[in-house]
Amino acid sequence: MTTHKVFLKPKKEQSLQRFHPWIFSGAIAKIDGKPDEGDLVDVYTASNEFIAKGHYQIGSIAIRVLSFDDEPIDDNFWLTRIKAAYELRKTIGLADNPVNNTFRLIHGEGDFLPGLIVDVYGETAVLQAHSVGMHFMRNILAESILKATDGVVKNVYYKSETTLPFKAELDPTDGFLLGGDENNVAVENGLKFHVDWLKGQKTGFFIDQRDNRALLEKYAAGHAVLNMFCYTGGFSFYAMRGGAELVHSVDSSAKAIDLTNENIALNFGQDPRHEAFSEDAFRYLDRMGSEYDLIVLDPPAFAKHRSALRNALQGYRKINAKAFEKIRPGGIVFTFSCSQVVSKDDFRTMIFSAAAISKRKVRVLHQLTQPADHPVSVYHPEGEYLKGLVLYVE
To answer: In angstroms, how far apart are the furthest CA atoms of the chain?
Structure first.
């Protein structure tokens, strides 16, 4: 197969010399031929020196770099990269762990495989393509996942209907690429939960909050806990195990509330300490009293694009100010943003503003981020997307 050559404008190779994995469309001077979206291309400097190869795509990010070496992108390439990712998960104690069979195996640029997300739930890996190139590689990737994980993964489910660019007109169909196990109960730190990889958000569960849920468990004893935007109840069942006095879970999705109740029952049976409500978060915060002394605010990404940043920050400010205003004295707030376009400074400034609006004394106890199985490449700081603070409110 002919590999198209892409030539950069003068001095536009500087970011690649720093191993940044994205090439923007404005950096390209010319392309030999007409590559289709998802094709492999070789990238050359203006002086005709090879510098990278990657997947071509239509849009602002024109090429996602797979390698800075002039090497074949073949079956062995994929297997080697996925094996390296699996070894990292073993090193940090997530793979081959008797009380935890849930982890992120591939975190895009953080594992030097831009455009690819793979989460493991027991014997099933959920593969999500965020680029057309990775979509075309899905069957080879599935085979490589089985080989790289030494038999731990036996099934690979493809879930990319909502993540691929719609203009590519791929019409991807979610479903099993390999295997077909319908057991969707996974274990995280000894707690069981149902994973809705068929219709759920992301790959079916928010693995990136594992460490932060474990921290919440340490604070939960004797507290009245409100878990806002609960989705499938992750923070709720950690709070229950931590000895919370009561736990209320709130989400606008009735299906999310059903899953939360199922997960609570899976771990604690019909425990009267827990109650779930399907209601708009802002409406619930407005009408609630001061019955909580531990509040979790883990909203969806209010801003997915920079154009929405201002409105997103207003939304974050409103929910945090309301939580600060109504939480009992001496209460604790776990607050997060998963919006990549919201920087750490943006998040801190928003919290400062929300605290000032509430006129409460607020102190930072912990600064939180994503866990080690969501690694950030030192060459791609944009990969650090999850920001969180644990706050003490007098």
So the answer is: 71
